[in-house]
Amino acid sequence: MRYMLIMEAPESMRLGEPDAPPAEEAFEAMGRYNTDLVDAGVLLAAEGLAPSGDGFVVTHDGETPTVTDGPFAEAKELVAGFWILEVASREEAVQWARRCPIGPGVRLQVRRIAEMADLQDIAPAEVLDAEATLRRRVAEREQV
């Protein structure tokens, strides 16, 4: 099973002084956590995200999509980073999520990633075939 751990935090939250990089201890704790994930063989991907000022939102309220540049001041919490884990069970995902070194004011949302089997009774056969083809193409690209 694959799970996505989504770190949500107020963008205004900074470790240490305003506009200062995060404290060395936070980097070290996160590095240890990521190393443990790799050593356990469960980490598929992990990334931190740049501030929302570097991002944009696309909305589609009619015929033409609208692009709005960040920052996203209206959001209380923003996605600050994520991990994708492959684990044997929900319980294992819970264990890893509990170990994540997030601090006060930070929330870790954990979501199971839907597998092809989840779509079997929902999507038409041609959609499932097309999705399987796309997943094979992505897997082939990753092997290169």
TrEMBL record:
Pfam families: YCII. It comes from the Bacteria. Residues 1-104 form the YCII-related domain. PANTHER family: BLL7163 PROTEIN, BLL7171 PROTEIN-RELATED. Belongs to the YciI family. This is YciI family protein. It comes from Actinomycetospora flava.
